[in-house]
Amino acid sequence: MARRPKEAPGHGDTEEGSDSLDSSEFSRAPDGGWGWMVCLGSFLINFMLDGTMFSFGVLLLELLDYFGQGKAKTSWIGSSLLGMSMFMGPVVSILLERYTCRQITIVGTLISVVAFVVSIFSPNVEMLIITYGIIAGVGFSMSFISAIIVVGLYFNRRRAIATGIAMSGSGLGTFAYAYITDMLISQYDWRGTILILAGVLLNGVVCGILFRPLSDCYTVGRESSSEYISGPSDSSKGTTELRKLLLERKYKEMCDEHDYDVPKIKNMSCRLTVSTANMVRLPADTSVFLEAREFSSQTNCLRTRLKPMKNQMSGSSVFYSGSLNNLKHRHTVGYHRSDEMVKPSVAMDNENVAGTCQGSSTLADILKTNINLFRDKIFVLLLLTNVCWTVQSVPLTYIPDLGVTKSLTTSEAATLISIVGITNIIGRILSGLITDCLNVNCTHTYIVTLFMASAVSFLMPWCNGFATLAICSGVFGLCMATHVSMRTIVLADHLGIERLTRSFGLVALFQGIAFLTNAPLAGFLYETFDSYVMPFSFAGMMYFLSGLFCLAVLCLDKHTNRGIEIIIESRNVG
Questions:
Q1: According to the model, what pLDDT value does residue 163 have?
Q2: Strand 328-330 to strand 565-567: parallel, antiparallel, or no bridges (unpaired)?
Q3: C-alpha to C-alpha distance for 347 and 345, rounded to whole angstroms
Q4: Interval 443-461: pLDDT, tens
Q5: How far is CA 16 from CA 6, 222, 350, 448, in A?
Q6: 3-state secondary structure of 437
Q7: Which residues pair with 215 in a beta bridge?
Q8: Nearest-angstrom CA–CA distance, 292 and 483
């Protein structure tokens, strides 16, 4: 390994400061261990929540017969549930800055369960919209967003795999819940079905308990690590002195043996830590240093009380669903980064200093940052792209009723939703393989699947028989999986990882509004034209517009100097 050249004072800080993802964000995540239990909890929450929401089309058939209301009005029940789960995203993100994912998940589960239980006493559609739709949607949003974020907190280098496993619960839930809902309705009425679904949702409390908060012991930053060994108490004085002596001796011996450039540090015996030693590139066989590093890590944990992280939403990549190993960071042109500078979060004993480092944005700062995002043409086009493909709720809601109008049985109609679910799982796997293994641009995949979904939506109302509808449903499930799984990756690729959290919050807000209105609007079109040709043509047109907007993003981004791309290299010492 080549030696690092000597640098002028302060250059090292500049280099480290250029990384959008500081080392503390990498060291915080265990990338395994209990993280796999967290991944399991997230999988089950996605299984239950998305299974309940996406199988509403099966329940819709029973509600239409029972209440005798129109499709436009009755579909508000399911659309409000789906819409509120996205619309409340920014609010839930604010709550996650004060409370842990475990707390938010448990509270959200209890809210949705209570809302489902109360909804079985609803005398009309309006009450169902309020209880089953709006109130339960708030609880769904709290559980769903927490389940997404907690996987990102526990995984960095294996995040793509962990996120894929967790999010595959969505497709599996859609597949299973369509059969489950149809079976429950045949045995009980819609009230008994919703009550049983509420009992199943109660398992979200157990999943929330699995979301054990990470401690500050994982977030020791380079600037703050010396705080952990300065000013020790009498009870830990001996351990602290032993650690300092061990590190100082091993560090000096190693640097003398390999002739490395050693940074000049005042009061080395008091400030020497693991982070100081990491400033030097080490060979993989430096076992002496690793022993000192491991011992120092253990003693740091012994004298530092484990406590939840101050702000789990402070990381710029918290919503990013891909792996962070080869993440590209874009310094965008024409955008004032001072408005949204992402500062590294460091763990410090001083509460006041910690609060200052994490930064407390005022409402005016947040509004200013959001307004600056709308000045970026790329963001506006991406927002339109993501809002338009929310029309996926139209086929999901009306495919079962479309099948019934084509002389299919209710069981066969429910099977169409199950096909969407199983191909959704396959689509998530294929989209990851195409992007990671074949190195295909994710935006290109995004565009192709958007146009494919448009074509399938136009064809669905002209299909006759179960076989043709099953094929269209399968292709639709593949496309839907790509749009959902690549959403944050496309945003990060074109806007930069430092703006992902803000941009994703705004996208989720507008997507929630679109989810609220798409299905009722399609129901209105059906009642007006007495045919499913217009509702599905509306879905096809929205998909087509989404593809055009995404194509415009690709063209504009190619012809605009978006800045320098910096590959964030993971520093793996030993």
A1: 79
A2: antiparallel
A3: 7
A4: 999 999 999 999 999 999 9
A5: 15, 10, 23, 38
A6: coil
A7: 308
A8: 47
